[in-house]
Amino acid sequence: QVQLVESGGGLVQAGGSLRLSCAASGFPFTDYAMNWYRQAPGKEREWVAFVGGSGGHTNYAGSVEGRFTISRDNAKNMVYLQMTYLNPEDPAVYYCVGPYDSWGQGTQVTVSS
After folding, report:
1. Cα–Cα distance between 46 and 44 in angstroms, integer?
2. Going by DSSP bridges, is the β-strand pair 10-13/107-112 parallel, antiparallel, or unpaired?
3. What Rg value do the Cα atoms of the chain yield, rounded?
4. Which of 13, 78, 82, 90 minimizes the number of CB atoms within 10 Å of its CB?
């Protein structure tokens, strides 16, 4: 079955950087696009970024474009989200989302001012 395991969250100062990772298994990884979503307390889930199966096509929410970079390593079945210039709007649980509406357990990102 599809399994997605996120890691890399933590506490960072405003203006700092973090890299999230997602280990994927249970499906033909290169056949599927992958996404990152996030959910802050009291807010709805928000789509953050998309990467196509080959890694050549990416897309971002306006709130993170220019600061976040999504990438994938198809040899390792990994998806990454490099986050820079983190600000007080970015704290949330970040989720890796794959095929068949599969979601990981999430990883918490906290930003201190």
Report:
1. 6
2. parallel
3. 13
4. 13
For residue 1, the tally of other CB atoms under 10 A from its CB is: 7
pLDDT tens by residue, 4-42: 999 999 999 999 999 999 999 999 999 999 999 999 999
Q: Which residues contact 86 (CB under 8 A, 6 or more apart)?
A: 12, 13, 14, 15, 16, 17, 18, 67, 109, 111
Q: Which string of b and e fits 43-58 if b means at least 16 CB within 10 Å?
A: eeeeebbbbeeebeeb
In the numeric block, the tokens 């999504």 are attached to 70
Tell me the C-alpha distance between 78 and 20, whole Å: 10
Amino acid at 87: N
